[in-house]
Amino acid sequence: IIIFNLQSLSKADDIRDFEIEGMSIGDSLLDYYSISEIKNARNYNDLPSDMKFTIIEMPKKGRYDALQFYYLTNNKNYKIAGVGGGMFMDINECTNDQKKIADEVSSTMNNVIVNGPFENKHQDDPSGDSYFIRYSLYFNDGYAAIDCYAFSKQTGWKDNFRISILTNQVLDWVNSNYGLN
């Protein structure tokens, strides 16, 4: 399966060429959702952060079970600085598709560095039995993560696939403990 699309089959130079359900970095959320939907979306404002960016989650749209967006908190146009999509999927099915997607992106994008796959324990599972497998793709102007999550039965969470596309500004913010370091 192809999880996200490129606007052109020729070599791309910019992460804005990625689309998830037709939405790209730099687009306005107002082109896809009403102000009311954006303001009433599930947000992560209760998590520790400097609130430079707001992170919201929107329900199922197209093939994704959920979409996640990052935008500068004070941006009245709700310009997308990060977009992600997730779908519930068996870990084995996910890892089969994951490499194909990473290979497709690296063959379609100019100046991309692909790291992975690498496996890490999931920090939110105290049992230590949950993990994720990630490909990290670094571009001149941003970052993409292609993840497969496998959760232990104790968590009650479902295995899933996620893809995230972030500007370098969002990646730096996330890597600085959401602006707290």
Description:
This protein has 181 residues and is of the alpha+beta class. It is built from three helices and ten strands; from the N terminus they run ββαββββαββββα. The strands form two sheets. It has an eight-stranded antiparallel beta sheet, sandwiched between helices. The protein has a two-stranded antiparallel sheet with strand order 1-2.
Instruction: Provide the succession of SSEs.
Output: EEHEEEEHEEEEH
By DSSP, the count of extended strands is 10
- Point out poorly predicted stretches: 1-10
Radius of gyration: 16 Å
SS field, number of helical segments: 3
What gross morphology would you assign? globular
How is the topology of this model organized?
Elements: E1 5-6, E2 18-19, H1 35-39, E3 42-43, E4 53-61, E5 64-72, E6 80-88, H2 91-108, E7 113-121, E8 131-139, E9 142-150, E10 160-167, H3 168-175
Antiparallel strand pairs: 1-2, 3-4, 4-5, 5-6, 6-10, 7-8, 8-9, 9-10
